[in-house]
Structure formats: C-alpha cells, structure tokens
Structure prediction request, 286 residues.
Amino acid sequence: MSKQKRARYAGSVRFYKHLLIACIVAAIVIPTGFCVFLTVSNRALHRTVKDLEAQVTELQQSAQITTASISASDSSSTVSENAAEGTEEEEKLSISTDDWNLFLVNEQNFLPSDFTVELETLPNTGKKQVDARIVEPLTEMLDAMEEEGLRPVVCSAYRTIEYQTELFENYIDKRLAEGWTYEDAFYKARTRIAIPGASEHHTGLAVDIVSKTHQQLDDAQADTEEAIWLAEHCAEYGFILRYPEGKEDITGIEYESWHFRYVGEEAASYIMENEITLEEYLALAE
Prediction:
C-alpha cells in the first residue's frame, strides 16, 4: 500500500471500523483466555490439595496406629509391673486385722463392749498404765532417749471410758465459756480429745510423750528434741506417730506430734517409711 493510500486509510471510516472490531475481539478473547487459564489452574490446584489431604490423612492414620501400639505396649508393661509390685508387696506384707497390736479404734470402730486388756504400770511414770505387752519396748524406747540426753515424759497412757468422758466434757465446757456454740465446741473436741469409746488410749497401746522442758500439747511440741527423735526412731521399737500432719481427713484427729501407738516393728517400719496411717496400712489387707 502506497503512502498516499495509507494516509487515506488511517483516517477513513474503514480504519475505525477495523479498529473497533479488533477492540471487541480483544475484549472477548482476553477475558475468555484468562478464565480458561484460571479454570485449568484451579483444577490443578484442587487436585494437588486433594492429594495433600489424602497424604495427611494417611499420615494421621499411621500415627494413630503407632500411638495405639505404643500405648498398648506401655499399658501391658504397666500392668505387668503393677502385678509384679503387687505380688512383691503381698509377699513382703503379712497383715492380719485380728492381730492384737493392729487393733483399730476410731469413730468408725468404737471399742467393743466386751473389750478387756491386761494392764501393767509403766516404770518411772507414777501410776501410768499400758497394755502389759508393750511395757518392754516402750521402756527400751524411753531409756534410749534418756541415754542420748533427752528428757521424755509420758503424760498420758491408758484411759477408761469414764475418764475420757470427763476430759471430753471438760474441753467442751472450756470452749463454751469462751463463747463457742455447743456444736462448734463438740466438733473441735472430737478432733482433739476423741469421742469416749473412740479413743486409742482405751486400748492401752497408745501413749502421749512430751518433753520435760515443754509439757504443753501444742504445735510447739513438734519442735522439741524429744518429738524429733521419736519421729525418727519410734518405728525401731514398734511405735508409730499415730496422727501425722496432713492425714486428718483419714484419722479424724488433728496432728498430734506427741501421740504414739504400738503396732509392732514390722508394721511400724512400713507405716513410717511410707508415711501412711494405721487406717491406710490395714486397708492393704482388704
């Protein structure tokens, strides 16, 4: 096309017509092509996502199977270990709730009406009496303390139900005089003195031991050299700290650093080493 013709075509109606057609075609083709591209890409991406989801699901299932296998293995191992421990404990412990030295007295186990005990006066304690069978180990324990320069005092031993009743009522009367309600005074008394018929002192197997330099039954008693020695060595003579700290919900009695009970050397060693109560020890026999 000559220059003259190109000049006439550039500004002619035909030129603008062709230009319009080209624009229309471009307006249709470009968006369509872009849509086709997006569709193809989206399908490919969707397939990729599905493949990834399938792989993740497979991995999760594999992990669950592995975890289940490990758990089953651990469970089996634990059961075997527990069984072995249980067998070992049964072999080691010989607990009979009928043994005289394991006789249990508390609010759930009141002293039987036909209960009897052979009492003997404890040497160097005035008129304090205990079950005749514990005089020897108790005396040995007190002698051992004195040999180390300690000064133990047995301030309470066997009590009759009548004497326990007197102590119990006196405690309540003192609280009432201080303005307590009877209900509060009674509840406090049962955790400090023990209800008559539910006191260990009725058995003749329990004694309260304090320091001669501090004879009050209070929190400070636990810090005396005598109380510290007893907590460490009482089991060697068959005694236990009957009402340990933190076990009030089991014994029903507040912590008493001075109250010791004879249970025999085997039971005493197990109870003190494992920091349990007589109630918990006897439960092992059930």
